[in-house]
Amino acid sequence: MERVSTIAGVRTKSAVRASPTSQSRSGQVLAYVLLSLGGLVMFMPFVWLLSSSVKGPNQVFVFPPEWIPNPIHWDNYAYVVQELPFLLYLQNTMIITVGAVTGQVLTSMISAYSFARLRWWGRDVIFALILSTLMLPYVVTLIPIYVIFTRLHWINTFLPLIVPTWFGGGAFNIFLLRQFFLTIPRELEEAAIVDGAQPWTLLRQIIVPLSKPALAVVAIFSFLHQWNDFLGPLIYLNKAQLRTLALGVNALQGLEWGRDMTQYIMAISVLITAPVIILFFVAQRSFIEGIVLTGLRG
């Protein structure tokens, strides 16, 4: 009887111990189900975009929607490339994006290192002033900046879209990198300082290698902004040969008045969106890691 009771007691204890495990597993299953449903809902617009890009005229808004069109019009992509100077627009977009992203990453990294590690008079006050610019709408400074670029004769050039990014890299990027730099132990730099390392050496050989996730986040955010920017090129680039892909979508809408151009707009939207999706999947790990680690310490 004692053995049975002991076994029963063990069974009771094991059952009690197994109960939280089963609850945690059921919670994980529920979380996976909810996340899968949420991901499916978020993914449906992109599926509809792909489907609409290969549909024929007047088939995009058919109800109920045809998710797999029959027949599939792959010639929509050929029409977009032929009717628009797509390669020229792509080249212009790449020039602006590469130049602006490089400037934002480099200068925001240097500025953030100065605010996080170097000690100089008025550092905290200037940093607060930089953060306050986040509350200033872009349209408020639009006209004064346009007047400045007009007097510099930079209109109809890529300079207004590239040069400003080389002066600080933006308040948000500075704040993001500063918060990440504060999480790096100072002992690493102190050991290098004992060996005679200068600030530029510390930044290049210690801070940058340890900050790749945060730098990847800044690069991805900057790439998304520059790649999809419509207002900036619309204001400063008036010549057709200087248009970007974002302006190309707008130009496609006015090619033929009275004709349904929706499927062609969807096709060029897929071509514009594809590099962004590829970039995210390639840098997904660094992007998520940078988001998680940034801001752990103020």
What features would you highlight for this structure?
mainly alpha, 2 domains, 0% strand
Provide a descriptive summary of the structure in words:
With 298 residues, this protein is mainly α. The chain folds into 2 domains: 1-53; 75-293, MetI-like (MetI-like fold, Orthogonal Bundle). It has 14 helices and no strands. Helix 1 crosses helix 13, helix 3 packs antiparallel against helix 10 (212-228) and helix 10 packs antiparallel against helix 13. The longest helix has 52 residues, at 2-53. The N and C termini lie far apart (63 Å).
Specify the CATH class of the largest domain: Mainly Alpha
Residue fraction in strands: under 5%
Largest sheet, in brief, is: none
Name given to the CATH architecture of the largest domain? Orthogonal Bundle
Summarize the structure.
With 298 residues, this protein is mostly helical. Helices cover 71% and strands 0% of the residues.
What topology does this entry show?
Blueprint: H1 2-53, H2 75-83, H3 86-116, H4 123-132, H5 142-151, H6 159-162, H7 171-181, H8 186-194, H9 199-210, H10 212-228, H11 231-236, H12 245-253, H13 262-282, H14 284-293
Helix pairs in contact: 1-13, 2-13, 3-7, 3-10, 10-13, 10-14, 12-13
